[in-house]
Amino acid sequence: MSQPPPPELTKQLEALGGHLVWRIGKDELSDNVIVRLGFASATPRFAHLPRLRSAGDAELGEALAAGRLVIEWVD
After folding, report:
1. Dihedral of the CA atoms 10, 15, 17, 21 (nearest 10)?
2. Which of 10, 56, 73, 74 is the most buried (most CB within 10 A)?
3. Helix (DSSP H) and strand (DSSP E) numbers for the chain
4. What strands lie across the sheet with 20-27, from one edge to the other?
5. Upper half-sphere CA count for residue 30 (Cβ side, 13 Å)
6. Is the pLDDT of residue 4 over 90?
7. Each residue of 39-71: pLDDT tens digit?
8. Do the Cβ atoms of 21 and 46 come closer than 8 Å?
């Protein structure tokens, strides 16, 4: 069983999480599930990226198991 993260790391991650935005969905051209992640200041740039189709928890799990999960950082 893994150890929980140190309290200081937990606080830092929670603080960072408050500054991030993300979108999760399926790519229109493939079966990949895309996770787009960026700072809140990058929110307007998300609108200029190709649209993502809705993806449920099951599809996310399947994509992860099959190696079809793609993480994109949005600047």
Report:
1. 180
2. 74
3. 3, 4
4. 52-53, 20-27, 33-39, 69-74
5. 9
6. no
7. 999 999 999 999 999 999 999 999 999 999 999
8. yes
Residue with tokens 């992640």: 37
- Amino acid 55 reads A
- Please tell me the pTM assigned to this model: 0.76
- Entry field: residues in the chain: 75
The DSSP H or E segment spanning 8 is helix 7-17
- Token code pair at residue 46: 């998300």
Question: Which residue type occupies 43?
Answer: T
- b/e sequence 37-75, b meaning 16+ C-beta within 10 Å: ebeeeeeeeeeeeeebeebeeebbeebeeeebbeeeebe
